[in-house]
Amino acid sequence: MRLHAGRLAHSHPGRGALLRGVLSALWIADPVERNMSEAIGAGNQMTPKALRFSQLSASRQTLVRVCQHVNFGQIQGLHVRNSDPVWDPAPTVLSEVRLDIEEGPRPEGELPDFQLSFEIQRLMCQLDRLQDGRIEKIEVRGGLPRRLVIPSRLA
Questions:
Q1: Does residue 71 come out as left (phi exceeding 0), alpha (psi in the -120 to 50 range) or beta?
Q2: Angle, helices 58-70/13-28, rounded to nearest 10 degrees
Q3: How far is CA 42 from the centre of its chain?
Q4: Rounded CA gap, 118 and 97, in Å?
Q5: What CA–CA distance (Å, rounded) separates 70 from 16?
Q6: Three-class SS of residue 132?
Q7: Strand runs labelled E in the chain
Q8: For 35, which of 13, 41, 82, 146 is 20 to 30 Å away at the CA?
Q9: For the segment 121-139, what is each residue's pLDDT rounded down to a tens digit?
């Protein structure tokens, strides 16, 4: 997915309209106050507390919805500012079409609120840890983020 001259281009034509709606909601929604500082425990160990979708900022909600709509694929080049995903410039979204099975949407994909999975909670902890930077790649499997590639500098 790329944002070109105000329109969204997506590698899977059927999902473009859905992502357009999700991303357009970002521009009109007020951010919801979140409290992720409690989600990171002492030291480097992440101990996420149970969170609900409605507790996330609009930008973080958009990230969750994009993962759900991608289902299988990657989100590449996602910028992060003040621990929130930045959608301008838009990241590249690659969808994998599985030919060996029939893919179904995530059950919570249409729900207005739900408890966040452990993987989503860990992703939110990583956003808090990163604060400002770039996530090179988010690998999405079954609508959930499974792996991140984050560049780092040697000290």
A1: left
A2: 170
A3: 25
A4: 25
A5: 10
A6: coil
A7: 2-4, 7-9, 73-81, 84-86, 92-95, 133-141, 144-149
A8: 146
A9: 999 999 999 999 999 999 9
| Per-residue tokens: 86 | 């930045």
The DSSP bridge partners found for residue 83 are none
- 125 in Cβ contact with 50 (< 8 Å): no
Cα–Cα distance for residue pair 151/59, rounded to 1 Å: 21
Coil, strand or helix at 56: coil
pTM equals 0.70
Report domain extents, the chain: 2-101+110-149
Which one-letter amino acid corresponds to residue 94?
Answer: L
DSSP symbol at 100? S
> Cα(85)–Cα(78) distance, rounded to whole angstroms?
7
